[in-house]
Specification:
About 65% of the residues lie in helices and about 5% in strands. By secondary structure, it is mostly helical. The protein has a two-stranded antiparallel ribbon. Helix 2 packs antiparallel against helix 3. The radius of gyration is 15 Å and the shape is flat.
């Protein structure tokens, strides 16, 4: 996989992969997860933080994606009921 960098330092995957950032590609893949799966991922990451202590990668993943995604799916679920 060829990786390019934008002016702001974000990684971009070569055009053959759609030219998104690595985060964009991951978000696209994670959109397939149902609320139950996302909730399990959030619970696991929180457990990992409690067990192992500070981990910036896990904290950033929770803050920048997983908690918001879980809230978004829960809201959508409530609206469909």
């Amino acid at each position: 996989m060829r990786v390019r960098y934008t002016n702001d330092g974000k990684k971009r995957i070569a055009k053959v992969f759609g030219s998104g950032t690595l985060g964009d590609c991951a978000r696209q893949d994670f959109k397939l997860f149902e609320i139950e799966e996302v909730s399990v991922i959030v619970a696991y990451l929180c457990w990992k933080l409690e067990r192992d202590g500070y981990n910036p990668t896990i904290e950033q993943a929770l803050e920048n994606y997983w908690l918001a995604r879980e809230a978004e799916l829960k809201k959508a679920l409530r609206e469909t009921k």
